[in-house]
Specification:
The structure holds two protein chains of two kinds.
Chain A (H helix, E strand, L loop, with lengths): L8 E2 L2 H25 L11 H19 L4 E2 L3
Chain B lengths: L20 H21 L6 H6 L6 H10 L4 H14 L12 H17 L5 H9 L1 H34 L3 H39 L1 H10 L2 H11 L24 H19 L1 H8 L4 H17 L1 H14 L7 H6 L9 H9 L4 H37 L5 H28 L3 H25 L5 H24 L3 H5 L7 H26 L30 H18 L2
Classes of the chains: A mainly alpha, B mainly alpha.
Chain lengths: 76, 572
């Protein structure tokens, strides 16, 4: 499998991770806000995990998207 | 290396979870994302090197995360959480002793030879080093195993979705397999690796909340241990080495020699250094330093996995208001839950709408990545090690890429067939798991000798590998026919079935190595010039002396091994 080396210029995998974490983070955060007035009945629901976990995911996702929005060699 | 698959879940059980619309939305977004990634990557996978080896352009981080993620499937998550509930922290041996030394060894000792040889697969390395016989035997075994594993993954996922969500088995099998077929046939290993790295993040974000919330509820590790002692007085679930000084002093029926020599030195080395599914991810690295670093970086993440797999099982022991039971007992009474349900039970305990969907999606992602990994590995081994080697040599690169896309589809269809066969005979899953163990330890012996000793010849490698596989099969059958044979192979009448795999791996490895060396000395050695780039002593290994210490793989390897030893001491 010997070939001339080819460098692919593509969006990095971190960009796609950022997209999905942002989408999930926003969805879960909004659901968490809804849960403030509609308790879920799960254990430790009073800690409102959906709110802070969704916020963490969304923040992480946005960071990944912003830092990796330009194509790189081979998507790394 | 996962617990008995056939006892995963009872297909007749009622639905465990009650997902909301947002949970289904989370699942749909995942399917849309993986398909979108596949379509995006198609334009970058026109050459064989792109389709089968992701262009050999992956950084150490991407290759390392993919390396770990390829092994981190949903069966692994659920099965080992269940084993942690059943056996306590002993189950963590399969993540620490059973992985870390082997991953570090792969990075420092074996990756230079895999990478410098420019092989595309483990059978490909054997072909370069020993010729077609050993390579063909290995490729044939591996091709069968990957298809069966993909089928088992499909069936297990369908079963889990039926129990968790009430989904029809056929719906789950066809939707998941068609999705995998599309994104792997479009983007090849690029797609598989990208989605494995996505899966890695989803699994951590989906599962990490359980140990966090659980430790808050118990008041930390000390509170967890206290509650376990309260619920199960007189039993030790939180020490790893103390209980295994004798076969009869632990529920697994194992001894530390089996853990160290059978699991640690043979089974784990065999899997992590020769299983092409994981090695393929490292072969995709952009240079030799990245190839060496990838499994070493992966070892750090592997060391952390017990936090999201073993700890939920221990939290189940501490917090669940009822005791879980073996699968056979749970099947007889629908009000009971089996050990393997501990992870979904803990997920439902803490996760409301949205978070529940994320956890379920993490399980689905784990299953589908397992299928994709097996299918992409099958596609590579079939195309290069069987089709190109024995059926059609010298065709243009484009021909082999097309073959790769076609056999991805064919592989999925065959795997679906395997899934339906497994559906009819669930206990087959245990035998399929055993099939892997027949050749992984002997294969490690063959590859290791081939890399480190130039005196090993092609006939020696073939007959040694065959002797190792046949002896492993023989030992397995002997125990099935006469369970008393377990005490012979494990050297103790107190040994339980869990010990069998470990000692069988050790003996079959020793037999492989012995036969390989004897036959090699009876046959003509290879000319040194033919071994350039393939074996120690005939390969110029690049020096890292000019690099600062923190950039050298050996530094991170030593640090990983030190951390591994610290963990053994903390949880002794």
């Amino acid at each position: 499998m010997e070939h001339e080396p080819v460098k692919h210029h593509m969006l990095p995998v971190w960009f796609f991770i950022g997209i999905i974490l942002t989408i999930y983070g926003v969805m879960i955060f909004i659901e968490g806000l809804f849960d403030l007035s509609h308790p879920t009945g799960t254990v430790l629901a009073n800690l409102y995990p959906a709110v802070w976990w969704g916020a963490i995911m969304a923040a992480t996702g946005v960071l990944f998207v912003v830092k990796n929005r330009r194509p790189t060699n081979a998507g790394n | 290396m996962i617990p008995a698959l056939s006892v995963l879940l009872d297909p007749s059980a009622t639905r465990m979870m009650n997902p909301h619309a947002v949970d289904f939305a989370v699942i749909i977004v995942y399917f849309a994302m993986v398909l979108g990634i596949g379509f995006y990557l198609k334009r970058y996978t026109q050459r064989g090197e792109d389709f089968f080896l992701a262009g050999r352009e992956m950084t150490a981080w991407v290759a390392g995360l993919s390396f770990v993620s390829a092994n981190l499937g949903a069966l692994e998550l659920m099965g080992w959480a269940g084993s942690a509930y059943q056996y306590g922290i002993l189950a963590a041996h399969w993540y620490w002793v059973g992985a870390i030394p082997a991953m570090v060894f792969l990075g420092i000792v074996m990756m230079p030879f895999y990478y410098i040889s420019k092989t595309h697969s483990v059978p490909g390395y054997l072909q370069l080093r020993f010729g077609e016989a050993a390579s063909g035997l290995s490729a044939f075994c591996f091709a069968i195993m990957t298809l069966l594993s993909a089928g088992v993954d499909m069936f297990a996922m369908a079963l889990v979705m039926k129990v968790l969500l009430g989904w029809n088995l056929n719906f789950s099998i066809w939707v998941a397999s068609l999705t995998v077929a599309v994104y792997v046939s479009l983007g090849g290993l690029f797609s598989a690796i990208f989605n494995e790295v996505v899966q890695f993040f989803l699994i951590w974000f989906g599962a990490l909340l359980i140990p966090i919330m659980g430790l808050i509820e118990t008041g930390g590790w000390a509170g967890l241990v206290a509650r376990i002692h309260q619920n199960f007085p007189g039993q030790d679930y939180t020490h790893m080495w103390g209980p295994i000084t004798h076969f009869s002093t632990n529920p697994m029926g194992i001894h530390w020699t089996g853990i160290v020599f059978g699991l640690g030195m043979t089974l784990s080395f065999g899997y992590w250094t020769t299983d092409f599914l994981v090695v393929q991810r490292v072969l995709a690295a952009k240079d030799i330093r990245a190839a060496k670093l990838a499994p070493i970086l992966g070892s750090y993440f592997k060391m952390a996995v017990p936090f999201i797999v073993i700890l939920p099982g221990l939290l189940g022991l501490a917090l669940l208001p009822f005791h879980l039971v073996p699968q056979s007992v749970a099947q007889a009474d629908p009000n009971l839950h089996s050990y393997n349900e501990v992870l979904p039970l803990m997920l439902a305990r803490y996760c409301g709408p949205g978070l529940l969907g994320l956890g379920i999606t993490a399980l689905i992602a784990g299953f589908m990545s397992g299928m994709a990994g097996n299918i992409s590995a099958f596609s590579t081994v079939w195309t290069y090690d069987l089709y190109r080697a024995f059926i059609r040599k010298g065709a243009p690169d484009k021909h082999y890429v097309n073959m790769g896309r076609i056999c991805t589809i064919v592989g999925i269809v065959l795997a679906i067939g395997a899934a339906y066969i497994v559906m009819q005979f669930a206990s087959i899953m245990d035998y399929i798991q055993a099939l892997f163990s027949f050749y992984v330890a002997p294969l490690f012996g063959t590859v290791l000798l081939g890399m480190l000793w130039k005196r090993i010849t092609a006939p020696g490698a073939f007959w040694g590998l065959l002797a190792g596989i046949v002896s492993s099969v023989g030992m397995f059958i002997s125990v099935k026919l006469n369970p008393a044979m377990l005490s012979v192979w494990a050297l103790s009448s107190d040994a339980k079935p869990m010990a069998e795999n470990m000692y069988r791996a050790l003996w079959s490895w020793l037999i492989c190595v012995t036969v390989t060396i004897v036959v090699s000395f009876l046959t003509k050695p290879h000319p040194p010039a033919s071994l350039a780039g393939l074996v120690y002593g005939e390969t110029e290994l690049p020096s890292e002396g000019h690099l600062p210490l923190v950039k050298r793989p050996i530094f991170w390897a030593c640090l990983a091994f030190a951390l591994f030893l610290v963990l053994q001491y903390i949880f002794r």
